[in-house]
Automatic annotation (TrEMBL):
Species annotation: Cyanobium usitatum str. Tous
Residues that span the membrane, as ranges: 66-90, 96-121, 133-154, 160-176, 183-199
Family to which the UniProt record says this protein belongs: Belongs to the chromate ion transporter (CHR) (TC 2.A.51) family.
Signal sequence range: none
Domain of life: Bacteria
Protein name, as recorded: Chromate transporter
Membrane topology: Multi-pass membrane protein
Keyword Ribosomal protein (UniProt): no
Gene Ontology cellular-component annotations: plasma membrane
GO molecular function: chromate transmembrane transporter activity
Localization per Swiss-Prot or TrEMBL: Cell membrane
Entry keywords, A to Z: Cell membrane, Membrane, Transmembrane, Transmembrane helix
Length: 200
């Protein structure tokens, strides 16, 4: 019981001014921008740590809901960052929430985009370099390992009952063993959630 009270006290949302929240959001996502190897989802564990554990912008359930929304919507997976910024600034009102959302999205995309543009401009010149081949081969396992860790983080965040765990494991097995479109899995999970079979 005392552990739960300590966790609740430790996760009290930071009381910042409107500008303080915006600066905090911008700094956190600017500092993460260059580490998104393999796409925005590779930083999901760090997003969760920042938004839920460190700054208490969102609850665990809200984070899982925003992740599901970002993945279901068309567009890049980095749109989750805008939603996290929205959650961070919400206590200061809708204006600051929108400002934090757009600021977070720009902060996560701008540095990494500029770096990729510069890399692409010089990548062709290194086409036959052994350094380029070694770099590309080395990043593959790193990215797969990060994505595996992200998958485990999502399972721990979203699945809080046995039915959710069973559905998640079944979907993983079917995705690896069959050629069924992921849209069917999303549709079935949506129906099960709507019927209350799986919930949080």
């Amino acid at each position: 019981m005392s552990g739960l009270l300590a966790a609740a006290v430790a996760c009290e949302p930071a009381r910042l001014s409107d500008l303080g929240t915006l600066v905090q959001v911008l700094w956190q996502f600017l500092s993460l921008s260059l580490f998104s190897l393999g796409g925005g989802n590779t930083l999901l564990a760090e997003y969760h740590h920042l938004a839920v554990a460190q700054f208490c912008w969102l609850t665990n359930t809200q984070f899982a809901d925003l992740y599901a929304l970002a993945e279901a919507a068309p567009g890049p997976s980095s749109m989750l960052v805008g939603l996290l910024g929205l959650g961070a600034g919400w206590r200061e009102g809708p204006f600051w929430a929108l400002l934090c959302a757009y600021g977070a999205e720009a902060a996560i995309l701008l540095p990494s985009t500029l770096l990729m543009v510069m890399a692409c401009l010089s990548w062709k010149r290194l086409e036959h370099s052994p350094w380029r081949v070694a770099f590309e081969r080395g990043l593959g396992p790193i990215t797969l390992g990060i994505l595996f860790a992200v998958g485990l983080k999502i399972l721990r965040t979203a699945d809080t009952n046995w039915a959710g765990v069973v559905v998640s494991v079944l979907v993983c097995v079917l995705m690896l063993r069959t050629r069924i479109s992921p849209l069917w899995f999303m549709a079935v999970a949506g129906v099960l959630g709507g019927l209350g079979v799986i919930n949080r």
